[in-house]
Amino acid sequence: MVHLFHHIRTRGLKVFVLSSRAECLREATVGNLINVGYHGWTELILRSVYSCLLGISSPLLCYLSTCSAEKYKAVEREKMVKEGYRLWGIVGSQWSSLGGYTTARRIFKLPNPLYYEY
Asked: InterPro entries, per this entry (predicted)?
């Protein structure tokens, strides 16, 4: 996946990393991504309490969830499209990461032995 990530970047595409991890875990998340070889993404989008409410963001109480992972990621993808981005592909290891608002040309479901959602 790291090789694919960098190949996509060298082709001139912007890569957004969209995670259900809490905003208060940004530093650890960035460190983990860099340690395994991911760097140079366009934006790392992490979840805040108000992430599903009209795009309002707040780092307060970041462990609380206001909506499902599917709805949260759909809202974030919709915001990207409204900002003028065209989604070429969505990659995820859980079906909940891939559903909802999906205007991407392709969707790629990766196996993940930690979650039995094949």
From this structure: Acid_phosphat_B-like (IPR005519), HAD_sf (IPR023214)
What is the DSSP secondary structure assignment for residue 110, as one 8-state letter? P
Tokens at 85, concatenated = 């981005």
Q: Among 32, 31, 34, 66, which Cα is nearest to 47's?
A: 66
Phi, psi (rounded to 5 degrees) for 31: -60, -45
Residues 6+ apart with CB under 8 A from 27: none
What the chain holds in terms of domains, given with CATH numbers, is: 2-109 (3.40.50.1000)
Amino acid of residue 7: H
pLDDT tens digits along 72-103: 888 889 889 999 999 999 998 888 888 877 67
Is 41's pLDDT higher than 50? Answer: yes
